[in-house]
Amino acid sequence: MDTLRQNDPQAIIEADKRHVWHQMVQHRIFDSVDPQIIVEGKGNRVWDIAGKEHLDAVSGGVWTVNVGYGRTEIADRVRDELVKMCYFAGTKGTIAGATFAERLTEKMPGMTRVYYANSGSEANEKAFKMVRQIAHKHYGGRKHKILYRDRDYHGTTIACLAGGGQQERNAQYGPFPPGFVEVPHCLEYRAHEQGGPKDNYGEWAAERIEEVILREGPDTVGALCLEPITAGGGIIVPPEGYWQKVQEICRKYDVLLHIDEVVCGIGRTGTWFGYQQYGVQPDIVTMAKGVASGYAAISCCVTTEKVFDLFKDAEDPMGHFRDISTFGGCVSGPAAALENMRIIEDENLLQNSADMGAHFIDRLNGLMESHKVIGQVRGLGLFAGAELVADRDTREPADERKVQQVVAECLKDGVIIGCTNRSVPGYNNTLVFAPALISTKDDLDRVADTVGTALTRVFG
Fold first, then answer.
1. 418-419 and 430-433: which strand pairing?
2. 189 CB-contact burial (10 Å; exposed 0-12 / middle 13-18 / buried 19+)
3. Are 177 and 253 in contact (CB under 8 A)?
4. Which of 14, 63, 140, 241 has most Cβ atoms within 10 angstroms of its Cβ?
5. Strand, coil or helix: what is 154?
6. Domain extent for 99
7. InterPro entries of this UniProt entry (predicted)?
8. What does the pLDDT read at residue 146?
9. 315: burial class by Cβ within 10 Å (0-12, 13-18, 19+)?
10. How do 374-379 and 384-391 pair as beta strands?
């Protein structure tokens, strides 16, 4: 039956409509239109079930397929590992798990320990649990609060939502666990809404974090969790001086610095990790998406040896990290991640991300001359956003429905882009781009040209 259905697209569509619950979709729309079914991918192109080709400028929709589709070498590596040893619980080790942990930490000076899980949300949950357990073991339970930033997103579980700054993602899912405290965002483009200065905004924004720590009490704050670049909250690249001041504040008050690299990790910004663009040294780093480019489920919570040592206590039967991730023991994840990392190195994709990213951001900036609806272009490497506004002078956000229309127009023309979606009330107005690290100038020129055409259609 499954073989027959390969030649019966309508049967697949109907099965999807009857049985699949899609993420982030109001399914009422499928009363009048069919869901789009993606059936094949090669490089940075995908084909839907109707045979239409699309240039994918968002790496699988959620910024994941960093090395592109159709990588038989990754599939072969995973197949070979699974036949030999498919799975064992994380209480034991595997060859792929040990090898990838070693390779990964070689790319992260100062970081030494890798805890495996299978999603970005789960990796961040692990980090939050580590912070809470450290508070109980070493601070009498007091230093348990976790700070997070307005507009940042750290996952979809209840605790991750509690520690996330996207109000529309959090709506209707409370009440949330206590101990998560918000700090202000660092979007310089909207500094006027915060009362921020025109000069030295980066340091000023970081100092707002210090104000929160002092208000809450430094002896109660255990960690600060930030994305290196705010992703789904608007592609916010921190301003000059911000990250250095943030690290200074964390060290001053003995606050663990947890950097969420689920989106930026593994080459997206032109370095292995986004934080490496700013010269800071985190205590905890979490990652997922690009770790295996979507070829297998894997996430990692990586710590310093200092953090790891806080759980080494032979005298306390409850002193070790009492956590489990069932599928953190699946060998497919680290096997795929090893081959993914090899491809990035052998094909020099970090440099390509930096070079092509600079070209693409130049192209987006060029669109601003003829499209007054673009208020600002932001990005680093092959990760970019264009914030759309109704008025450049007032910076009033563009109508969210029109922003989504731009995405739809691009899709009609065979280019898949994204936009901020059900994240921050009133500010879902940023077009989002995260093409694969293999992208060429021709690919990116086509994306930019298509966006320009779509903007003309929607905004005139």
1. antiparallel
2. middle
3. no
4. 63
5. coil
6. 73-346
7. Aminotrans_3, Aminotrans_3_PPA_site, PyrdxlP-dep_Trfase, PyrdxlP-dep_Trfase_major, PyrdxlP-dep_Trfase_small
8. 98
9. exposed
10. antiparallel
CATH number at residue 390: 3.90.1150.10
Q: Are strands 396-397 and 384-391 parallel, antiparallel or unpaired?
A: antiparallel
Task: Return the structure tokens found at 334.
Answer: 């680290």
Q: Which two tokens stand for residue 160?
A: 């991750």
Q: Of 346, 380, 407, which one is at a domain's C-terminal end?
A: 346
Question: d(Cα 293, Cα 266) in Å, to the nearest integer?
Answer: 9
Radius of gyration in angstroms for the set of CA atoms belonging to the chain, rounded to a whole number = 22
DSSP 241-301: THHHHHHHHHHHTT-EEEEE-TTTTTTTTSSSSGGGGTT---SEEEE-GGGTTTSS--EEE
Burial class (CB in 10 A: 0-12, 13-18, 19+), 89: exposed
Pairwise CA distance, residues 113 & 163, whole Å: 23
Backbone angles phi, psi at 148, to 5 degrees: -135, 165
Same domain, 119 and 136: yes
Splitting the chain (460 residues) into consecutive groups of 10 residues, what average pLDDT does each group show?
67 94 94 95 97 98 97 98 96 97 98 98 98 97 98 97 97 97 98 95 98 98 98 97 98 98 98 98 98 98 98 89 96 98 98 98 97 98 98 97 98 98 95 98 98 97
d(CA 416, CA 51): 15
pTM of the model: 0.97
Structural domain count of the chain: 2
Digit-coded pLDDT (tens) for 231-289 = 999 999 999 999 999 999 999 999 999 999 999 999 999 999 999 999 999 999 999 99
Give the pair of three-digit tokens for residue 238. 């921190």
Residue given tokens 């109907």 in the structure block: 14
Give the Cα separation of 280 and 335 in Å (integer). Answer: 29
CB 134 within 8 A of CB 222: yes
Length of the chain equals 460
Amino acid at 231: A
Measure the CA angle with vertex 128, ends 122 and 130; round to 5°: 105
- What is the distance between the alpha carbons of residues 191 and 236, in angstroms, rounded to a whole number? 12
**pLDDT tens string 273-302:** 999 999 999 999 999 999 999 999 999 999
CATH of the domain at 223: 3.40.640.10
Q: Measured between alpha carbons, how far is residue 92 from residues 118, 395, 454 in Å? A: 17, 55, 53
Q: Which two tokens stand for residue 301?
A: 């919570």
Instruction: State the Cα–Cα distance between residues 13 and 9, nearest whole angstrom.
Output: 6
Domain end call among 346, 368, 391? 346
Report the distance separating Cα 404 and Cα 429, nearest Å: 9
Query: What is the number of other CB atoms lying within 10 angstroms of the CB of residue 2?
Result: 5
